[in-house]
């Protein structure tokens, strides 16, 4: 039977429309022949279709709209011709209709013409109409009838400046009329829920929501009345509306109407009547979603405050914050069942409001957070996702507003609120904080702040105690840690002493992070420290003799320990790189022992930890590169280190790797801008060794694959030869180069040679280079002259 | 041919005219045959003046035993068919016995005629006023001619006209208080009032105000009562709740009402009632009837 409902409804609607059209046709015919009596008769019959109880509001609306169109035409007719009837007669005539609903529709229609004719004061007609409409007690029919009344009367209210305003007709009458219509409509609307069987309650509530705009429209009309000034709004309009809202004791209506009031009336009115408006909130039904209402209100006020700075004094004058805060407290108290999320939404809105209106009052912000903490206390970590989301919003707001984490760090209650977040969200929040810092490029410059900040984001810094085996998405984790790394870079203070303290603090925190985090967090700390070292160095140059507590040495000690922590991970490659970086920095500071120590650590790592051959190759090149630039070492130390490096090079697994490492080592003995390190003999030794290895590689390749490998190695070595030749290494003779040329040419022409275009091109370039140098002439040209390519 | 036709024609044409025929107001009157004719309107104490003219058919003479005009006020009960009761009977002799050869006119006058009752056309009873001209003839029967006229009597606004106010109800079910602004209404009056719901525990569907006419004729065991609903006016649509007040405004002018007639010549009475009817969703009717008085107010225009 229920399934037939929709079909039947369609049928009823169709029948209704047919009946309506038929009578409308006769009505038009009567109008055309100026027959008022018939016109009224048929229009009443037409309107009788609206007496149906079978249609849902939605369908009823369709029917109503059709009737509405016809009534408009009827109204036009009355306005224009009236067929000799006086409007007063007409006003009586329509009331002869026996059925109340058509009668009232007609009465409203003629009433509209009556007002327009100005033969009677608008207020009297309006009052009569709104009173007579009481006859319709059926909710849907009553709502539509009154909405019709509202529709036809809204341009005829005796508003200020309206043509209907007169001595006797004041804006008070207009307001009174609209208010009364509103109150009656609301009563009908609220009553709807009690009519019909209980099992259809849900459907009825849905239908009710569909009808709500009919009721709300009245508030809109009120807001459009020019004459409603602040005084009238405060003394009449708002109290009357609120009285109705509170008294109707209906959840749906209270929520909707409060929202309507907030949305339709101007901001400055709200501001000036805040107390009245807010005092209604605790009186609403406990199930009403006041939080949304209040947060919309605060949102509006926030926007209002944001719209212009001129209005801010108004806020102060009415103590908006105090009132709102108070009201929220009361609401939370009154609605015991309000979920945490609701309370947090309220606080969050209040916070937004405060940030807009009182950006200078950090104490307000803290107060709000404090209230929030109080509400959350004893709840432990929240598992309600909505509440969590709201807390994140709550905590993010000050960050966005102040664009300065330091402000947030001053809020004592901030971390206490954060504590109530679950781990995941805590991390998200920490992420938000870091984002904010990054976005605003805030430098965190004191130990206290760093401490507070790291306390805030500790969710990212270390594993929580509870969930040891949390399954974390690797990508997320990496991202989190990268952001922490970024954050570390943002810590800065001009004062080296303070900076050192910061570094120590950070170090303390990151060392608790466990092996997974260290690879992310240690490098930025190291580099930040190295930055400090460089700064110290330049300061020393500028202001030598000044007492500076933190010395580079001290820092290097800390760094050494920090890098050591990485061994627990272990990430030897990373540690090695960091050691080398430190060594280089130490080199710049002329701290030989320190640099030596770092190198030693690096070598130890190379020997003990780096076993992967590819990693070894990379590492050895790094070592060679770094070592080459070191100028702080004495002969002995340098010898030890270079010797070791050469040794490592020769012990690499693959021959080509060996070869390349060895010829790279040649640079260790020849530093261009340092005359003390120009050992041509050992350079040649290295290169020769490299040649030997290259040969061996070639033979090996021949033996195993049956074809010669690339000649690339030879060409590379040739280039090294040329380099040192150019640099004036006397050990490199023209003949050696010449010999190498021949060797390469032979190799390239040999039959079992695999063609290698890259090697060919390389060789060709090399030749071109020599040619070029020759042509260019000069000292270099002469030097190249003997070489025949 | 002419002769033959003339034989069946009445021997004369009698016409009755009123001296103020042109200025007097005429009102419609429904005749027995269903036709509506316009007849002059009088009220009590008026002079009824006019003339009758008798015109014999061409070339004939009328011999008569005298001509008279009567003014009759009659009450006719339909269930007692043909039995007229004349409550007023005035006679004027217009001519002594003689012969009429040509058209002859006779003026007549009834001065300040007492006509206490109004013309009334009911379901079971009719009260009418008629002028009856009789030309008595010894043979061939008398020639008679009738002229109806209507009498309406006006009353001033009653000095005391209390409202009707009453609280009624069914215990624990429905309590209402209604108020009609007057107890006496004139025919073009407007009923203003309201119904106030003190308690509503039943699901009402609608509420109507009916105007009912009760016509009782005869007396004693022979009393016939006929009740008609003349107006059925919907006051409310839907179910009200406690505290609602529903306005009443009912214009009487569209309805065919007459003044209340109480015990007219001991023959009949016509009374009017308001009947407030509440209908619930199961179509049960709850009603309360109140007698009202309807009178004819002197029209000022």
Automatic annotation (TrEMBL), chain A:
Subcellular location as annotated: Cytoplasm; Endosome membrane; Golgi apparatus, trans-Golgi network membrane; Prevacuolar compartment membrane
Membrane topology annotation: Peripheral membrane protein
Gene Ontology terms: biological process: intracellular protein transport; retrograde transport, endosome to Golgi
UniProt entry keywords in alphabetical sequence: Cytoplasm, Endosome, Golgi apparatus, Membrane, Protein transport, Transport
UniProt cross-references to InterPro entries, sorted A to Z: ARM-type_fold (IPR016024), Vps35 (IPR005378), Vps35_C (IPR042491)
A GO cellular component entry from the record: Golgi apparatus
Predominant cellular place of this UniProt entry's protein: cytoplasm
Family affiliation: Belongs to the VPS35 family.
Function summary: Plays a role in vesicular protein sorting.
Protein name in UniProt: Vacuolar protein sorting-associated protein 35
Organism of this sequence: Actinidia rufa
Automatic annotation (TrEMBL), chain B:
Keyword Protein transport in annotation: yes
Places the protein is found: Cytoplasm; Endosome membrane; Golgi apparatus, trans-Golgi network membrane; Prevacuolar compartment membrane
Pfam families: Vps26
Membrane topology term: Peripheral membrane protein
GO biological process: intracellular protein transport
InterPro entries linked: Arrestin-like_C, Vps26-related
Keyword Transport assigned: yes
GO cellular component: endosome membrane; Golgi apparatus
Keyword set, alphabetical order: Cytoplasm, Golgi apparatus, Membrane, Protein transport, Transport
PANTHER family found in the cross-reference section: VACUOLAR PROTEIN SORTING 26 RELATED
Protein role: Plays a role in vesicular protein sorting. Component of the membrane-associated retromer complex which is essential in endosome-to-Golgi retrograde transport. The VPS29-VPS26-VPS35 subcomplex may be involved in recycling of specific cargos from endosome to the plasma membrane.
Assembly mode: Component of the retromer complex which consists of VPS29 (MAG1), VPS26 (VPS26A or VPS26B), VPS35 (VPS35A or VPS35B or VPS35C), VPS5/17 (SNX1 or SNX2A or SNX2B). Component of a retromer subcomplex consisting of VPS29 (MAG1), VPS26 (VPS26A or VPS26B), VPS35 (VPS35A or VPS35B or VPS35C).
Family, as annotated: Belongs to the VPS26 family.
Protein name as catalogued: Vacuolar protein sorting 26B
